[in-house]
Design a protein that fits this description.
This protein is an alpha/beta fold. The protein has one domain (2-189): TIM Barrel. It is built from twelve helices and eight strands. It binds erythose-4-phosphate (E4P). Erythose-4-phosphate binds next to β6 and α7.
């Protein structure tokens, strides 16, 4: 399973890469805008830092413009994967980009049916959004299983990429549901490692430890 980092921040990419959590990167226009720098420079920096796929999204909604933009963007680096929207216009675009051999990530999938034509086409990734559905009090967890099954049933090489992961529960559900890849934002990893029970447990163990005779503690802590 691939773990991508869902950010355009160079600082975060470096941090999570060192922790073994960057098999690739997903960006989107909002994430790039948040950095406030030239998106072209930002993308070039990211692709140089990371060996795996870096998803970069088109910013038009009209097929001719999306195709033209995608063809230029993918020249920035060999590991760029073009994000195309899962819409009629996106499908038209995807068919044309596929003919050019351009790698794609069909994005903004909220229901597995949206991804079906893209899976049939054999795009590299299809991004199912979880958190943005759950923000409305609905669950999109079943969709992970359904999409995973439909990819298998259709015999497609498309990888199910679970996206819009908000918290540790979504992360686990994405794994259990059969995702091939998961893109996790830094804030989710921060939540994973800010469990108050962990902090309490660690503190209790170390407080008890300090009750031991100092010479015994020193012997243990300076073992060679
Ligand atoms: C996926 O590639 C998207 O960039 C991302 O997961 C969207 O997440 P959000 O719903 O937190 O914006």
């Amino acid at each position: 399973m691939e773990f991508f980092i869902d950010t355009a921040s160079i600082t975060d990419i470096k941090k999570y890469k060192a922790l073994g959590l960057v098999d690739g990167v997903t960006t989107n226009p909002a994430l790039l805008a948040k950095e406030g720098k030239s998106p072209i420079e930002q993308i070039s920096e990211i692709t140089a830092l990371v060996d795996g796929p870096v998803s970069v999204e088109v910013t038009y909604t009209e097929p001719d413009k999306m195709v033209a933009q995608a063809k230029k963007l993918c020249k920035l680096a060999d590991n760029i994967v073009i994000k195309v929207p899962c819409s009629f216009a996106g499908l038209d675009t995807a068919i044309r980009l596929k003919a050019e051999g351009i790698k794609m990530n069909a994005t903004l999938v909220f229901h597995p049916s949206q991804a079906v034509p893209f899976i049939k086409l054999g795009v590299e990734y299809a991004s199912l959004f979880i958190g943005r559905v759950e923000d409305f009090g609905l669950s999109n967890v079943e969709a992970i299983y359904a999409m995973s099954a439909s990819i298998e049933e259709m015999g497609s090489p498309t990888k199910l990429l679970s996206a819009s992961i908000r918290n540790p529960d979504y992360l686990m559900e994405a794994i259990e549901g059969g995702s091939d890849a998961i893109t996790v934002p830094p804030v989710c990893w921060e939540k994973v490692y800010s469990n108050p029970l962990f902090a309490l447990g660690e503190k209790e163990f170390l407080d008890s430890w300090r009750g031991l005779d100092e010479s015994m503690r020193v012997e243990y802590e300076s073992i060679d």
